[in-house]
Amino acid sequence: MNRKLTTFKIVFHLAIFFISTSLQAGEKINLLLLSGKNNHEWQKTTPKLQEIFNNSNLFSVTVTERPDTLSEKSLKSFQLIVSNWNAFPEKSRQWSAETENAIINFVKNGGGFVFVHSASATHYDWPEFQNMAGGTWGDTTKHGKVAPFQVEISKTDHPVTKGLANFRTTDELWVDMRINGKPTVLGNAFAPSSNRGSDELEPVILTQKSGKGRSFFLVLGHNVQAMRNLGFQTLLLRGSEWAASGKVTQKIPDELSLDDQSRKLSWQKEANSVSLLNNGKIVWQHHFDKKEGKPYFHPLSTIDGSVLTGLRPDDHPWHRAIWFSWKFINGINYWEEDRATGKSEGITELKSVRYNLTKQFGAEFNLELTYHPPTGNDLLKEKRSVHMSAPAGDGSYFMDWESTFTALADEVVLDRTPLLNEPEGKSYGGYAGFSARLNNQLWDVKVINDSGETEQLHGKASRWMIYEAKNLKGQSVAMTIFDHPANLNHPNKWFISNDPETPFYYFSPAVIFDSKLILKKGEKLHLKYRLLVSTGEIDQTKLQSTWNQFKTK
Questions:
Q1: How remote is the C-alpha of 279 from its chain's centroid?
Q2: Residue pair 351/343 in contact by the 8 Å Cβ criterion
């Protein structure tokens, strides 16, 4: 039974205190996060680490910016210390003998200690600390630019890495790290000479045992962007749990689990969602909670569970993976949502949902929706059908989305953010309608239209558009949306975002990209789209064949 989260300060000596604490009753691991000094951006990375730990619901985190004041008494309530602190380039000891002895005894008596990235690069003349880390920045250590590389799991029977697949990340890779003691290396990464590397595998995941305690050193995590990587977060959580308890209960995300080549499909039905599973991993899930209003699909994954969609990202929390939303109806915003309430100014109301699931693992959904202002009558109604095909032999499957909108008011104006050449226009104008927001963990994302072009595709017409990428395991995955020839303004212009820095991967066949649409009472708008999920390299000939089949429907 959980009690209400409380925040308090733990006082050390006179004016020393921990800056934030969050405790709950139960089986949570009490974690002390060391911060306050680092040759990296600790002011940004410490809150990110705290967020990762809190979101796992396994740890109760306390942060201190004065680790030099720790004592055996102050450590008694903790099972784990995670360090994001160093005094680099200063090499001499920084903490008092009392603090050093407290930490040594903490670990020897069964506590855990975790080093994140450069946290070991300090206390060079404190041998117990260096041996506990297992590795540090030495006299000949170097690194190249932050760049993409693959982390290769070298020890697959350790609790931290068991079941974890190799994965890609963008980070700072240490070369020729100084090894202390006899650590166990769980994972490595190849450091190419083209980026100041050794053309050899360099260790990035290390463990060490000290008395009854355990330590874990994750060399990854140079900055906040690197910490957003799902592989980093998975290792951090599993390694921290192991260091604290000697066991690991944290589940490996489907995107990072080792592939099961067999296929075992099943249905999972809940009150407000239906999912297709393969070996227990979600292939796709349709959400239709009437309290949320806007139905959506998430996750939409490959047959082996590699997630392609992104739900409610921080930059646009109203993005719902695969969904449909108008921007403005009669001047009221139905797209953006209040960050606090999750509600739009205009109301998208889900009236009814019916579905049929086949023994061959296809599905048919029929929904009725209405659109209206906060007060007043319905302006627009929608009848929507979504057909999900059964997965093919190669694992590909498609979604056929069909919506018929009927104007209920004397005049219904469907509009969007204006374009740059219009009054109050924006560079990001033109969006509304059927949309896809992709997973920000995808790599090497490129956009391709029906002519094979890959540049300057925003605002360009095309019969279909492809987002091709690599997943965390380095496998080729793709999502393709087809615009039916019977649609208004076909071939539609596309709203494209492919920013790897944010990252922000979004695309939509923007049916009213160029101008608003006015429907008179009783007039209808009929829209049809096909979304194809596939793996492997893109074959435009096959896409043309899919298009030929789809356009006759």
A1: 22
A2: no
CA distance 107 to 84: 17
Question: Could you write out the DSSP letters of every residue in 335-389?
Answer: S---TTT---SSEEEEEEEEEEE-TTS-EEEEEEEEEE-SSS---EEEEEEEEEP
Closest CA to 480 of 428, 433, 535: 535
3-class SS at 461?
A: strand
- Cβ pair 360, 392 in contact under 8 A: no
Q: Are residues 297 and 323 in contact, defined by beta-carbon separation less than 8 angstroms?
A: yes
Q: What is the dihedral of CA 37, 39, 40, 46, to 10 degrees?
A: -10
Q: Other CB atoms closer than 10 Å to residue 423's CB: what's the count?
A: 5
**Beta-carbon count within 10 A of 340 CB:** 6
Sort strands 112-116 and 213-218 into parallel, antiparallel or unpaired: parallel
Dist. CA 206–CA 222, nearest whole Å: 16
Please tell me the distance from the alpha carbon of residue 494 to that of residue 502, in angstroms, as a whole number. Answer: 20
What's the rounded Cα separation, in Å, for the pair 201 and 188? 6
Contact 232, 221 (CB under 8 A): yes
Whole-prediction pTM: 0.85
Per-residue model confidence as pLDDT tens digits over 32-74 = 999 999 999 999 999 999 999 999 999 999 999 999 999 999 9
To the nearest 10 degrees (0 to 180), the angle between helices 230-245 and 42-56 is: 70
Structure tokens at 51: 């967020």
- What integer best gives the mean pLDDT of the chain? 93
Region of residue 456 (phi > 0: left; psi between -120 and 50: alpha; otherwise: beta) = left
Which helix (H) or strand (E) is 133 found in, with range? helix 127-133
Cα torsion through 454, 457, 462, 464, rounded to 10: 60
In DSSP terms, which residues pair with 368 in a beta bridge?
Answer: 352, 383
Q: What residue segments make up the domains of the chain, in order of their start? A: 11-252, 323-550
Dist. CA 484–CA 529, nearest whole Å: 6
Domain 11-252 indexed as CATH 3.40.50.880: yes
Using CA atoms, how far apart are residues 319 and 311, in angstroms rounded to an integer?
6
Q: 150: which 2 tokens?
A: 């693959």
What's the alpha-carbon Rg for the chain, to the nearest Å?
Answer: 27
Listing from the earlier edge strand, what are the strands of the sheet with 517-520?
Answer: 332-333, 328-329, 411-415, 517-520
Alpha-carbon distance of 139 to 259, in angstroms, equals 41
- Which tokens in the block code for residue 221? 């995590």
| Distance in angstroms (rounded) separating the CA atoms of residues 322 and 460 | 21
Average pLDDT rounded to a whole number, residues 400-411: 98
